[in-house]
Amino acid sequence: MPQQMEISLLVLQGVCGLVWIYAVIHAVRAARNRAEDVPLSRLLFNGRLFFDGDAFTETGRIYQRRFVVAALLFLALVIGTIVFGLTTLSNG
User: Fold this and answer.
1) pTM of the full predicted structure?
2) By the 8 A CB rule, do 70 and 23 touch?
3) What gap in Å lies between CA 20 and CA 72, rounded to an integer?
4) Any residues with CB less than 8 A from the CB of 49 and at least 6 apart, and which?
5) C-beta of residue 26 within 8 angstroms of C-beta of residue 63
6) Among candidates 21, 75, 35, which has minimal Cα distance to 50?
7) Which long-range contacts (CB under 8 A, 24 or more apart) does 24-27 make?
8) Separation of alpha carbons 25 and 62, rounded Å
9) Are 57 and 33 in contact (CB under 8 A)?
10) Predicted confidence (pLDDT) per residue in 3-58, tens digit
11) What is the 3-state secondary structure (H, E, C) of the chain?
């Protein structure tokens, strides 16, 4: 039984990694399609702009939405991994 939990935890961590890569890819694509009045340095130093659709063109907003969904999914998966890992440790 513990070995199955370790495998489940590994699979969950792998999914976290894939979602993170998906988020990074779409963040880069969104940054390439930013609005003309938004310099790249402003996006890099003000991360909140990635969650604001006004900083991107119409094409960039598609990538921005995908990034936001992936970032929220990544957050949920990280929290789930922590909870699952802690319950696995406590069940020993």
Assistant:
1) 0.85
2) yes
3) 10
4) 38, 42, 43, 55
5) yes
6) 35
7) 26/63, 26/64, 26/66, 26/67, 26/70, 27/63, 27/67
8) 13
9) yes
10) 777 888 889 999 999 999 999 999 999 999 999 999 999 988 988 888 888 899 99
11) CHHHHHHHHHHHHHHHHHHHHHHHHHHHHHHHCECCCCCHHHHHHCHHHHHCHHHECHHHHHHHHHHHHHHHHHHHHHHHHHHHHHHHHHHC
Q: Which residue has the tokens 């590994």?
A: 10
Please name the amino acid found at residue 32: R
Which tokens in the block code for residue 66? 């995908």
Find where tokens 């900083």 sit. Answer: 55
Per-residue tokens: 15: 């999914």
Question: Structure tokens of 24?
Answer: 């990074």
